[in-house]
Amino acid sequence: MYTRILVPLDGSTLAEGVLPVARRFAVALQAQVHLLSIVDQEMVESLSTSLRGRYTPRPAGELTDLADTYLRRVAEGLGVPPEQVRFSALVDRVPEAIVAEAERQPDTLIAMSTHGRSGFGRFLLGSVADKVLHTTHAPLLLYRPRNGESNEATSEVATVVVPLDGSALAEQALPHVAALARALRLQVLLLRVTSPMSTAFASDAESDAAYYSDLNQMLRQEAEAYLAAKARQLKEQGLGAVTTREMFGYAASTIVDVVRETPGSFVAISTHGRSGLRRWALGSVANRVVANAGAPVLVIRPS
Fold it and tell me: How far apart are CA 195 and CA 2, in angstroms?
């Protein structure tokens, strides 16, 4: 399981939005929290060139000192035992530095907010998160708070929603879910979203309607049996609070609806699991869920 949680911060309140859930994970897993601030090397070089002769930008060393002071303050207020927290500030290219730091230690979870534009490096965490997601092999916990939402709401995680599309790749999220559910005493909701077969191109409305109705019923029964089997496997691993839900609809929007109506929930999803009954691409689904759910999303890159 995760032994270290790497949290990139840029000095903004939005970037700090992921801290409550990172703290919850760290305490439950007894994992180290590594707070990382990166002064954007490209920004420093650009300012030094464009402002030469008119204004002297702060040297990189002074910027890292400011970031170090900021990180120390965050660490002291994090609510995690001091021996479990470390922090560092450096000058580098932001996405590459995050990925490289995650690779230094196995079993690292990267936890970051999206769209936190400000702070020392002034990097747009939305684009940074996207680059990290497509580069790192480490699991990535992404959080984009809804407008007006308290950051503390993310610490109240009680249910993990696990979208499954019937593929082996999508199921690679399940070992992570099982470990987290045990450590955090979570309820597990296994969700299967199937797009219903449409009668739009039916040649004989009455006979084809009956055919598609039977086909949709068969799809629903298959999905229910599949979810029941996966729930049974998790219960055999000692997880008691496992429920299932089978729904018709569009994958991303349905997942978002389920999360929003389930207080204290977050999502655990594998990316690029392109198969299953309707073959929806979990990579694009994950992006849409992160953007719209207003809840943390744990993204697993299949091995």
Answer: 35
